[in-house]
Design brief:
With 326 residues, the chain is an alpha+beta fold. It folds into 2 domains: 137 residues, no CATH class; 140 residues. 24% of the residues lie in helices and 34% in strands. The chain contains 6 helices and 20 strands. Strands 3, 4, 7, 8, 10 and 13 form a 6-stranded antiparallel beta sheet that branches. A 4-stranded antiparallel beta sheet has the order 6-5-9-14, with no helix packed on it. Strands 16-17-19-20 form a 4-stranded antiparallel beta sheet, with helices on one face.
């Protein structure tokens, strides 16, 4: 640094200017990197809505039908969409969704890395034209804030929309990455494309063993609940709701061998299901009507749904044996 003679004004040499610009560029680059690094993707959200009406108005009406949601070729569930008004959200101009699917809620079927969502919708009225809309966005760990102009900044990134005007059935497929998903060792097992009769017998025995866990002192069932992290086991124990419904006559039966079926996903897991209803059922469906305590009904119902779902998924371990994974 030198001074202009007689004026005391700092003068930067050409070489010094290069250094200053370089340092400034590095600082900005580091700042951008820090902001990007902080804004990690922690979820991906999907919104599905079949509707009729004009989306530029204040509200539309959902279009009745049944939606089936799949992740990585595994059916997560079916959802009936009933006819009801759906407001247009004022901040975004988007239709309030009929079905909301956060990726973090789908369970172990979600892979770290690449995944595929599919939604099949079958309307009750196949002859009427309607909108079918799938929206998605990544959720980051950035803190929502307000910009200098007073506008809201959300923690959503990479939004997208697939909006179709259609009659009859429709199917949406969307591929997405989920680096935030827990990585399970069995996610890396080879895909299973077929099973032998011996495999089927082994898989059916897993289902029967699951049904047998519903018996006093329920220790095996509590162990399942702890492993699944889905139910407060201490509260269930304290309430005694399982003992109450068991004493009322509730027994859990597995699917009959003639109805038992194995589905393939193209991945390591196979889906254990029944061709006739759910994989499990109460031997006497009238038992719950004899339990009058609503708290007991709610507690037992939650445990039964978590432990004896309509379908189970199993994988073949490296030693050749089968085990249930969800």
């Amino acid at each position: 640094m030198s001074r202009l003679a007689g004026h005391g004004v700092p003068q930067v040499s050409n070489n010094g200017g290069v250094k200053v610009v370089t340092r400034l560029f590095c600082f900005v680059l580091a700042l951008v990197w820090c902001v990007t690094a902080r804004a990690a993707v922690v979820n991906v959200e999907f919104n599905f809505t079949p509707f009729v009406g004009d989306s530029v108005s204040n509200e539309v009406e959902s279009f009745p039908g049944t939606a089936r949601v799949y992740v990585n070729n595994v059916l997560l569930g079916e959802r009936d969409v009933s006819r009801r008004p759906l407001p247009i959200l004022p901040d975004s101009g988007e239709v309030r969704p009929a079905i909301w699917i956060p990726a973090t809620a789908v369970g172990p079927v979600l892979r770290r890395g690449h995944n595929t969502l599919r939604i099949d919708f079958e309307p009750k009225d196949p002859g009427t034209t309607y909108h079918a809309q799938l929206r998605w966005a990544s959720v980051t760990d950035a803190r929502p804030s307000t910009d200098a102009g007073g506008g809201a900044r959300t923690n959503l990134a990479n939004p997208g929309t697939d909006d179709r005007v259609i009659k009859g059935k429709v199917s949406f497929t969307h591929e997405f990455d989920a680096e935030f998903a827990p990585d399970q060792p069995w996610h890396h097992y080879p895909p299973v494309a077929s099973v032998t009769e011996e495999d089927r017998r082994s898989l059916l025995e897993l289902v029967k063993a699951r049904a047998r866990t519903f018996a006093p002192d329920f220790s095996d069932l509590y162990a399942l609940l702890v492993a699944g992290h889905r139910v407060d086991v201490d509260e269930v124990r304290k309430s005694g709701c399982l003992e109450t419904v068991y004493d009322a006559g509730l027994r859990i039966a597995p699917a009959d061998a003639r109805d038992f079926d194995v589905g393939f996903t193209g991945n390591a897991e196979v889906i254990l299901r029944s061709r006739n209803g759910g994989l499990f059922h109460p031997e006497d469906p009238t038992v719950f009507s004899r339990v009058t305590d609503t708290a007991v009904q709610k507690c037992a119902g939650l445990v039964l749904f978590a432990s004896f779902p309509p379908r189970l998924a199993a994988v073949r371990s490296p030693d050749g044996g089968w085990r249930i994974v969800y």
